[in-house]
Amino acid sequence: MIEPGRTNLIPKTLLGLCIALFIMRASAVFYGTYFQKAPAKAITWQQPKPIDRSRRDLLSKPTLYFFYEDYSPLQKVTAEVFESMLFQNREVARLVKDEFIPVKVAINTSNSEPAKSLANTLGVYQYPSIYITLPNGKSIHQVSWQSDRMFHAFLNDALIARAPKAAGAALENLDWALACEAYELAFKEHAYSPYSGICDEIYWSIALRHQNNEAKAKQVLEREWKERRIPEFIRGKEDWPKPCIDYLLGKITAEELEKKATLDPHSYKKALSQYVIGENLLLQGKRDEAIKALKLSAEASKAYYMHDSKYARAQLRQLGEKVEDEKEESDLRSIY
Amino acid sequence: MVSAMGSALRGYSVTTEAAAAATEQKKVPAVLVEGLVKSYSFGRIKALDGVNLQVDEGDIFALIGPNGAGKTTLMGCMLALLRVNKGRVKIFGKPADHIDVRRVTGFLPERPSFESWMNAKEFLQFHQMLAGRSADETAAEDIKQALEAVELETVSKRQISKYSRGMLQRLGLAQVMVGKPKICFLDEPTSGMDPPGMEMVRTLLTQFRKQGVTVIVNSHHLDEIERACTRFAFIRKGKIMTQESISNVASKMMIACWAGGVAPEAAILNAALNECGGTLADLNDEHAKIMLNDRQDASKVIETLVKNQISIEEIFFDRRGLSELFKVEVSDERRSDDSKNSPTGSTPGSTQDLPPGQTPDSNSGAN
Amino acid sequence: MNKAIFLFTMKRYFHWVNLAVGTILLLFCSITCGMLQTVDTPLTKEAARSFLFGPLIPIMVSYLVISPQVANSQRRKDGEYLSLIFSRPIERWSYVVTKWLTGSTFVLLVMTLQVALSYGISCIVGAFFSVQPGNVLDGYAIIDGILNTLGFTALVVFISSMPQRYAAIVVLLYAYIIFLLSFTVGTASYLDSLSIEQVSKNMTAIAQLLFSIFCVGFDSYHVVNSSNLPVANVLIYMSNVVLYLTLATLVMSYREFFYAND
Q: C258 contacts in B (CB within 8 Å)?
């Protein structure tokens, strides 16, 4: 049937190769089905526990939650496929074992209440999915169907993002030591990653001064601003928050700073400048004047994303002042 | 030429031992079609119905027939571009799709559809490479010669998309030439061409004939076929109706026109014709019809007439041989069609009503 | 492989109209990836990498299919054009393999250009922000780039080997299955334990199996680091590529190329 030299016929080699490959493929599937032992589960999953919001060890291992629905066999198998795709990868498994606390949360009828409340707290809206949080339940990342390589990048990303997140949480708790440690970590290898805010070195220097480390606080402010990797054409003429840094370095007075922060319809500048003035006055021992400034900052905004106002309110509570609570922060909010 | 196959197919080394078989191999025809059946639309339309055909090496073979007779389909099957349902096609004793056959094949499609972004030179280089002729020492010269032969050398750098239909046809012919074929399939080589173009095709066919290249040509220009071809086959409704040598149908009737409208006397003319084997068939004031025993005697007739001081203005063959045949075949077909449709069997509008020299399917007739 | 087909197809890819369209695509993709590379996080780097060596490949390969229509100002029929080509000494399988290798070579060339260009752009942008651009090129990327290109080109060669009306049906069917599977299994690319028992039990595994039948992509990072036997994955890829080439040769061999049957 297949003669050499004929141009219109399919060559034996190609046909043979195709058939051989399909036989090998079928054999591999057959072997995988009936003879290959299922690989040992790469991850030892822990049972879910209620979130402890009061935890202070924010730089310890973050928690990795694997949420999946378990109402039907289809959902269960889907979860199995998801797990095998993401966690059978040796690199991913190693990273999860070393750096995270893996927790598997099945949402089904038998254990519905605790698991559902955990899912509600974290704002889970897709199953199966992965949520990465700080030990106190503060969300870092959430991810669903991904290639294992992309997932590996997500995990690495979460490890970078947790330090600035932990630092922010420490400032809300007025845990200056933890804040210093977290900022140290955040800026050590990934200085000015997108997770580090534009004002982080200001907060860091305040935390350092609360820890009586004036020299490093000054060094942080001076060095970090100089090395700031945002070109001038983006920073603009106002160069915010440089006036705050100048004030903390003693280059300008509080009045001058207030003047520079006036043109601000959204109160961002007011919140930050008054917080900086308040903290500075407090560190100088001027308690009453500090409270006055902190109150101005606290009143600037009650939105959950206005960190300076939140830090100011935390400080006011510490000083025994009565302040209103901010609007509740949603855990749905991811870093983006 | 050592043998038909040996000369035609590259890659077939002719050894001393093989020389003994040369006489046997000489009999291998250039094209052999046996019991060819080709149908379309799952067998509903039969394009070719048991075609048997033989073309010898060096033949300039014409396929003629009315539209839809199956000429192009037959050519497609001979080129192995169409799959046959039954029967077989052998080119130089090999299957039509054999790589050795392809190496010596040239093909000009009826509707030239070329890579329009190329220029003529690039296109010819491409086909020279495809034909495996680019490594030849004369490769560049061959392209130049081909372009000159089809008179496209001045526009060889122009993009093909800007070519007229006739120019595309010329380029197609050049493409056939650069492959240095031993067998050519030309489908309507003169379509869309101007008179000089037609003349060029005739010259090319004559050139192929001299070089011993076998040519299968599919054309409606019967006059051109009669002049350049050696054999022909008439196809009708997917069947070969006639297959013979052109010389068998070519006219042996000569027409001599008298200068100044003065006819010689019949006795003088008869006496003169007796010397050279001609017979006077008709005589009037304007011309005489002279029947020859053999077409080869034509020069003798002219010589004798001149010697006898008979003043002739023009003398030519009555070129209606093939046209007459075509006319008869087509009218037969129509008659049989009409007899199926009408019980009276009348032939309204049949080709017999046409003036002599004109066929329903050709624009030939004029010399 | 046929040298003439290779050279002239390549020449057509580099025809100025194709180049103009291609450059726009190239610049758009390079700028996107270049910007992503300047944001120094594992995630953005990974996004740039997977964009360059992932979805861009099918886009580029698909462009190869329409390139003849782009380059040829006159509309042409496959039958007419290819009848002339196939009257020449070219085996149909050789034509298929040549088209496959030519397409792959071109896509790999463009991809190399794209990687270089996006790295260049990330260097320029990075200079403003004093950021070291992320390097997206590693062993995995190179292997994936080559294998994905070869895979998708084989698929496209198969589709374009069919007469246009059938090709359209196949493309629609293929797109529909991929669309359906994307709902069922998300962006899952491979199933490690392709178990017949599982297939008999549930839809997801059936979807996975279907996907593995069509799939011509390769994820070397997954295969290398998989805890399971990676042989099945490699075989699925290889058999699919060879299957598409064999099918393309079959279609080409049995297809009639002539204007008489239009």
A: 72-73, 76, 79, 81-82
C9, C95 Cβ separation under 8 angstroms: no
> What CATH number corresponds to the domain at position A284?
1.25.40.10
| Residue A275 one-letter amino acid | Y
Q: Is the minimum CB–CB distance between B204 and chain C shorter than 8 Å?
A: no
How does strand A63-69 pair with strand A101-107? parallel
Full residue range of the structural domain in which residue A240 is found: 197-332
pLDDT averaged over chain B?
Answer: 78
Nearest to B109 among C7, C73, C259 (CB): C259
Q: Do C72 and B82 touch (CB under 8 A)?
A: no
d(CA B49, CA B70): 9
Strand ranges in chain A using DSSP code E only, listed in sequence order: 63-69, 101-107, 129-133, 139-143
The percent helix, strand, coil of chain C (3-state, each to 5) is: 80, 0, 20
Measured between alpha carbons, how far is residue A275 from residues A29, A239, A300, A307, B177 in Å? 65, 18, 10, 10, 90
Q: Do C232 and A11 make contact, defined as CB atoms within 8 angstroms?
A: no
Q: In terms of C-beta distances under 8 Å and separation of at least 24 residues, what long-range contacts does C21-28 make, across chains too?
A: C21/C63, C21/C70, C22/C63, C22/C110, C25/C59, C25/C60, C25/C63, C26/C110, C26/C113, C26/C114, C26/C117, C27/C117
| Contact call for B113 and C258, based on CB within 8 A | no
Domains in chain B with CATH codes:
31-247 (3.40.50.300), 251-318 (3.30.70.1150)
Say yes or no to pLDDT of B354 above 60.
no
- What does the domain layout of chain C look like in residue ranges? 3-261
CA-based nearest residue in chain B for residue C262: B40
Mutation target to probe the A interface, by most A beta carbons within 10 A, among B99, B103, B130 is B99
- Best of A2, A7, A10 to mutate (most B CBs within 10 Å, chain B): A7
B48 touches C at CB < 8 Å: no
Interface contacts B/C by beta carbons within 8 Å: 97
* pLDDT tens column, B10-58: 433 334 444 445 545 556 888 999 999 999 888 888 888 889 999 999 8
DSSP state of A43: S
pLDDT in tens, B296-330: 788 888 888 888 888 888 888 776 666 666 666 66
Tens digit of each residue's pLDDT (9 = 90 or more) over B96-133: 999 999 999 999 988 877 888 889 999 999 999 999 88
Tell me: do A42 and A171 sit in the same domain. Answer: yes
Kindly report the CA angle at C77 between C73 and C79, in degrees rounded to 5? 145
Residue A64 has pLDDT above 90, yes or no: yes
What gap in Å lies between CA A198 and CA A202, rounded to an integer?
Answer: 9
The confidence score (pLDDT) of residue B77 equals: 93
A53 near A169, Cβ under 8 Å?
no
pLDDT at B174 over 90: yes
* pLDDT at position A54: 76
- Is residue A277 classed as helix, strand or coil in its secondary structure? helix
Task: Give the model's pLDDT for residue B336.
Answer: 63
Instruction: Check pLDDT > 60 for residue B356.
Output: no
Cβ–Cβ contacts within 10 Å for residue A43, how many?
18
Answer yes or no: do A203 and A287 share one domain. Answer: yes
- The whole-number pLDDT of residue B33 equals 92
Q: Do C239 and A21 touch (CB under 8 A)?
A: yes
Say if C137 is an interface residue toward chain A (CB within 8 Å): no
Contact A5 B100 (CB under 8 A): yes
**Nearest chain C Cα distance for residue A60, angstroms:** 21
What CATH number is attached to the domain comprising A91? 3.40.30.10
Residues A102 and A151 placed together within one structural domain of the fold: yes
Contact between B187 and B109 under an 8 Å Cβ cutoff? The reply is yes
* Other Cβ atoms within 10 Å of B141 Cβ, number: 10
